[in-house]
Amino acid sequence: MKYRNCIKIFHSHENIEPDFNLCDYAIAFQHLDAGDRYLRRPLFIESGLEKIENKQIDPERALNRKFCNYVYSDWKWADPVRETFFRKLSKYKKVDSGGRCLNNIGGIVANKIDFIKDYKFTIAFENSSLSGYTTEKIIEPMIVNSMPIYWGNPDVCLDFNKESFVFVNDYDTLDAAIEEVIRLDKDDEAYLEKLSKSWHTGESYAERQLKLLSFLKNIFERKLSEAKRTTDYGYVRTYRRKQETMGQLFNEKIMRISFFNKEFKLLARTKK
Fold this sequence. Notes:
The chain has about 270 residues and is α/β, with parallel strands linked by helices. It has two domains: about 10-45 and about 210-270, 3-Layer(aba) Sandwich (Rossmann fold); about 55-195, Glycosyl transferase family 10, C-terminal domain (Rossmann fold). Helices cover about 40% and strands about 10% of the residues. It has nine helices and eight strands. A five-stranded parallel beta sheet has the order 5-4-6-7-8, with helices on both faces. Helix 5 crosses helix 6 (about 190-195). The protein is elongated, with a radius of gyration of 22 Å. The N and C termini lie far apart (about 45 Å).
């Protein structure tokens, strides 16, 4: 480790659990119990939690919109269930894809929020299903009252009211979830009833901000010796060295892959 005599705080917006052998404190997605060393703070908090707390619906506006959208840039690192669902739902009606992935509207949208506000439904799938891992995917459509078709965090109901959106994880099959979407699309009254329910069931934005402030004050208002939670003794020193070596090897492997990819592309262009 380059920095040793300091407090290390792990923070990630990805589906990675913190390793408390390597860090003193952590801020991440998972539901973990590590005393004052850990704060669960999902990405959706910074993505607009305060904007959905006072929900208001205009029924005429809500119904007079296009069917469904899909805005994603990455498919290589995501669970294939996302693309599978898109293709299955597209058999019922066209799903407008405005990202780089499976784009079918002639170009990439400039502003996602402005784009999705014109749709009754938004496919809001995480890249993976992991307890506690809820990103901006679910909250962005909520900001503009586009009903999320959500797949991902199996415990999302701890933060959001699953009666207000289509929770794909709750269905035995993707086809069953799609049947529910079709039912809501065809039944205006049922759609509005579901859309009118409150989005959020967890702590408010203000409460979460106070938790963050308290968490940070507990670290920075103490002496270094009091705030430090890791140790430099016992097997942990060997463990850290192994992790550091593995990290270096991983970075070298990525660099080699990147180099060979560039070389192969150059060779392919030369042959043309």
